[in-house]
Amino acid sequence: MRALSTLPLILGAACAAAVLGFAGPAAAAATASDPLTAADNEACLRCHASADADEMVDVDGEQESIGVDREVYESSRHGQLACTSCHIGFKPGVHTTEQTDGWVETAMIGACRDCHADIFQMYRSSFHGELVFGQSNGEAPVCADCHEAHNILPPDSAEFRAGIDDLCAECHEYELQTYLDSYHGKAFHLGEEKTAVCSDCHGGHKILPASDPESMVSEENLVATCAQCHPGANENFAGFLVHVDPQDPQSSLLVWVFYAAYIMLIAVVFTFGFVHSGLYIYRGFKDGLYKRKHHG
């Protein structure tokens, strides 16, 4: 009877020993070589953060530096991660062709997907993602194009928001110029950090064209998008024309007509004033109004 009562204890001890036997080495191995810790970064930074790390490598026809600013990287959002978390398969020393094969795609897309699967799915179904994984000509942005590889900042930080407009302008220069002509653009670049930037209206990872019903700037969602900053916004408020170039009739014919009428009105008013003033001065000369009279 006593033997039966101790049987569960014996079985429990055996199971615990088995678990520890398997988990112990695994845990030790994970601690020693876990790619998500920065313990081994020194070996990488010894070359890539050295004073003479000015070597350039060819990346899809463009020359890129292999240098890394240690201070910037270590103070970034990924500063506590190991280099091999993103540069998978690399080891210290001269890198082989096998290690470097496809490293750009891995470091700029694949490694991001490993840790940010939910955000990657949003990006994958976005306009940018469809270009990259579909008909891209190599110019569509990937993760590391918007989130600088070695200087990843919190997306809600003032520093990151300050660079969003210029970041988008690398591909959308026309849209940036029309944004700067708007109230939002002028206010933001005059120091009002809370005013809307590109991502506030268009989204960050799931950017879609306005024709897509799921887009933040589609007719179905535009009022809600404006209401994020402007409570009480309605269809009339959200109907404000944005990204319009008044000098381009193809941008908005209505705005162009009013702009042309405005310029003509200014020209007429100033021309009338110039002619009127000129005739007045001429008449003064004719009538001797500007001659000095000497009294003796």
Topology:
Layout: H1 2-33, H2 41-48, E1 56-59, E2 62-65, H3 70-74, H4 97-100, H5 103-115, H6 117-124, H7 127-135, H8 143-146, H9 158-169, H10 173-180, H11 183-189, H12 198-202, H13 222-227, H14 235-238, H15 253-286
Helix pairs in contact: 5-6, 9-10, 10-11
Principal-axis shape equals elongated
Helix content: 40-55%
Count of extended strands: 2
Mean pLDDT: 81
* Continuous helix count: 15
Terminal CA distance: 148 Å
The major β-sheet equals: 2 strands, antiparallel
Can you tell me the residue ranges where pLDDT is under 50 for at least 5 consecutive residues? 1-35
Order of helices and strands: HHEEHHHHHHHHHHHHH
| SS-derived structural category | mainly alpha
Strand content is under 5%
Strand order of the largest sheet: 1-2
Outline the structure in words.
By secondary structure, the protein is mainly alpha-helical. Among the domains are: 36-152, no CATH class; 156-243, no CATH class. Helices cover 54% and strands 3% of the residues. It is built from 15 helices and 2 strands. A two-stranded antiparallel sheet has the order 1-2. Helix 5 packs across helix 6, helix 9 (158-169) packs across helix 10 and helix 10 (173-180) packs across helix 11 (183-189). The chain starts with a helix and ends in a 10-residue tail after the last helix.
